Amino acid sequence: MSVRIGISPIAWQNDDLPDLTAAFTMEQALKEAREIGYTGVERGRRMPQDTEGLRAYLDRYGLALCGGWCSGNLMRNSVAEEIEAVRGQVAQFVALDSPVLVYAECSNTVQGDIGTPVNARPKLSRAEVKAYGAKLSELAKWMADEGMVLA
Questions:
Q1: Which residues pair with 70 in a beta bridge?
Q2: Which among 86, 112, 111, 113 has a CA at the least distance from the CA of 101?
Q3: At 18, is the pLDDT very low, low, confident or very high (cuts 50, 70, 90)?
Q4: Is it the case that residue 107 has pLDDT exceeding 80?
Q5: Is 62 left (phi over 0), alpha (psi -120 to 50) or beta?
Q6: In 3D, which of 35, 4, 1 has the Cα closest to residue 98?
Q7: What is the DSSP string of 92-139?
Q8: Across the strands, what pairs with 104?
């Protein structure tokens, strides 16, 4: 069995506080990722967002799409609304043979908001966690039916 290892460009660039790493280009990150042996990278904000542009961009560095962040809002959205919100990214990741889509709930998040202390983050009751889990399971099933694994 062969193993392929990918990395996120966030190891070079901070997406939440981009000023911290403004001097590091995406081209440098991809070149260095390939040089040190990674075969894939996650999709980053500084990459082309269209499917064919992204494919050509990654091909230039000999890298595959190994996944990528998806900012979800399932706590606020219905499952149907969330499916519509992520449909394009799921289709892109399927087209580029990505093994997973890294789904992260971002409703009411406080990261990147320097004025909000971490202890002021949203908290869910047991019932809210169960309801959210049921919705997330529905979304994961839909993604699986589309050919994508929700991670």
A1: 103
A2: 86
A3: confident
A4: yes
A5: left
A6: 4
A7: HHHHTT-SEEEEEE-TT--TT-TTS-GGGS----HHHHHHHHHHHHHH
A8: 71
The rounded distance, in Å, linking the Cα atoms of 32 and 20 is 19
pLDDT over threshold 80, residue 112: no
For residues 69 and 43, the answer to whether their CB atoms sit within 8 Å is yes
pTM assigned to the model? 0.88
C-alpha separations of 35 from 5, 15, 58, 130 in Å: 13, 23, 14, 44
Q: How many residues does the chain have?
A: 151
Q: Is the pLDDT of residue 62 over 80?
A: yes
Assess contact for 135 and 150: CB atoms under 8 A. Answer: no
148 near 94, Cβ under 8 Å?
yes
